[in-house]
Fold:
Amino acid sequence: MKALILRLDAPMMSFGTVLVDQHGFIDRFPGVSMLCGLIANALGWHHKEFDLLQTLQSRISYAARWDVHPERTVDYHTVDLGQPKMREEGWTTQGEPEHRAGGPDARFGTHQRYRHYWADGLMTVALSLTGEGTPSLDDVVHALRYPARPLFLGRKTCLPSRPLLDPQSPIVEGDDLLSILIKIPIWERGDSRDDFEACWPAELESSQRAHIRRVYDLRDWHNQLPTGSRLRAEGLIGKGHT
Structure:
């Protein structure tokens, strides 16, 4: 099989997971829907192209490895819903101001938000597209080299520090995604570790010790809602080739 090799390197990355109240939590690894959105953005697709997005998401399979261990950080900010501009006619379809339900504090008060990020990490991703159809891996390589729009890793504030494609080997062949990932060289920053956190498709048979976990990283693109789950293997893998 063939896999696209991505190097995700940014001051901050955000792999969104289930939102709980005012906390925008993150997963340890990117979700399938996030990778789908990343590719679609590079291709210049729009949210209204539901069928294209849903088909692309169903074709994505990946394995990922943290080459540089990230630190968790939390961004605290507030939203003042009482500002005059927030009380006037805004982004509505009926021409009337639209506010949160509840009392005055909920409608016009100051709301706190906590957004979680991974800071100063570097991740390698081996990504494949199953089945036939558009885009092909070559289409994705071209789109990531010449993206239709600026790319980001999770939230729009998470701008990559370098081009996303591996500069030496943007496409690599191997038996499966895990074996491909293991043979991709580690990009280190003076770290002497021998084992690295990784994830890969749960259905792969592997000698690697792994924990099988259910993750909720799929999206109903037509209704713009998170929906569906899958099983993912998580564990430690060795350096492979350096």
Remarks:
- The CA atoms of residues 220 and 227 lie 6 Å apart.
